[in-house]
Amino acid sequence: MAFSCSTNVANLSKTPLAVPARTRNARATAAFALIAALSAWGLSAPAEDGVEMTLPQAQALAVQALKQNRPKLAYQLSEGLLKANPRDGQAHYTQALAFAQVKAYGFGRKSARKAFNTAQTEVQKYEAAQLASQMAYADDRLTLSQFWLRRAVQHAPTEDVRQESVKAFRTVRAHNPLNFNLKFSVSPSDNVNNGSNSPYNIIDGVPVVGVLSPSAQAIDGIVATTDLQGSYRIAYGERYMTRLTGRAYTRQVTFNDAVPGLSGSDISSSRLQVGVNHLAVDASKRGQWEFDLTGGRVWYGDSPLYDFARLGVERHNRIGENMRLGFGGAVEFQEDETWPYNDAMQYEGFAQLSYKLANGARIGGYLNYRTTETDGVNRARDQWTGIVSYTMGREIGPALFSFQLGHSLVAYDKYRIIGPVPGGRSDNSTFGGVTATFQDWSYLGFVPTVSVNTEATDSNISRFDVDETSVSFGIRSEF
């Protein structure tokens, strides 16, 4: 892919960056070196005489110089214009184009930034941002090019132009070896600690332990999550790509009211991981394999919880034009940092199917099985989870809505409370939620989201009868 900075020259005379009204009709003299500029055109004027020209005339001369591929003259003229008015956005834009013609992309990008900062209209900001992105791309500054394309999307004058900038962003991202994604959310919740909805601990209807402590019961509070994922491409070909990957995730909890013996930081958690990802595309380009090898550490509270190493494989296929099928599995070894007998092996598999309807809506289904093998007390378990989802094909008011409903069954064959629990522990959870994405409120390609989620768990051990309702406010990239 290659950008052509010179294409903006033709547009310059059609939608110019305007000179501020207070100086538009001002007259500039030899103070901005028009004698030298005219000499470059083969004209002459007595050195002792002043050469007088209006600013619009000087700008028109600079545009002609660019069209005739005379960047030095265009630069000299724009320098004079900037001496007359340092906030002349048109002159900054002209300088940027002059730098582009001599491939001085770094200087040109700085001039384009000044043109953006002094622009008077949305069209002017769009053109300056587009030019800055083009020169950043030509200078192999691809991440910076993506940043300026986000600004171009923000100030695009029409929806068609906006979509062109989004398409350019995706193209640059595909070429960029560095890729990252940031998600952030804040969620008020009536159960931030996954606590019991009852103060009593009852097993199959029989009181066993008695009254639960306040820290084991549901606590109101706020959960803030930050998830930063990044990757760097190290090898690629026509049908394969290999990337180094990394992730930093945090879940920070605060309580609305003080709880004896427990603080929000005690149940906060974080995760750091690095790895390698390999993608192999079929010759038909209708399917692909994806392999992941990752390792890292998980913290709970202020202390390390466990280190892990994970190997995963996934398969994704297009079935027709509207259906997607995916399946895969993973194995993960967890080395516990608190007690060696808690080391675990975890195996999982999944399958998912999605279908796009004629009206643009999408329905999906997801099934997951996970089993954990360990000698640790109360850690070995089997879990089945199923989810159905629906995303609307058009907005209702300012928001695009998506819905999901799921059920999970977790079984602990060996579970102890003082002594073994007859039959083990069994938790049945039903959960669902709705998410509203406000695409019309986009800023630099980032859109706000609001989710309302609820979950109810019914267990044969009342300590794990859990109800939770939360509202999440988040931000995500729309492309």
Lateral strand order in the biggest sheet: 3-6-7-8-9-10-11-12-13-14-15-18-19-20
pLDDT below 50 for ≥5 consecutive residues: which ranges?
Answer: 1-50
Total number of helices:
10
Choose one word for the global shape: elongated
Strand content: 35-45%
Give average pLDDT, whole number.
Answer: 88
H/E topology pattern: HHEHEHHHHHHHEEEEEEEEEEEEEEEEEE
**Terminal CA distance:** 19 Å
Rg result: 31 Å
SSE class: alpha+beta
Q: How many DSSP-defined strands?
A: 20
Largest sheet: 14 strands, antiparallel, barrel
Helix content: 10-25%
Structure description:
By secondary structure, the chain is α+β, with helices and mostly antiparallel strands. Helix content is 25%, strand content 44%. The chain is built from ten helices and 20 strands. The chain has helices spanning 7-12, 21-24, 34-40, 55-67, 71-84, 89-101, 105-118, 122-138, 142-154, 159-175; strands at residues 27-28, 53-54, 178-189, 200-203, 206-211, 221-236, 240-255, 269-281, 287-300, 303-319, 323-336, 344-356, 362-374, 381-391, 400-412, 416-417, 419-420, 425-437, 446-459, 466-477. Strands 3-6-7-8-9-10-11-12-13-14-15-18-19-20 form a 14-stranded antiparallel barrel. Strands 1-2 form a two-stranded antiparallel sheet. Strand 8 and strand 9 form a beta hairpin. The longest helix has 17 residues, at 122-138. The chain is elongated and about 100 Å long.
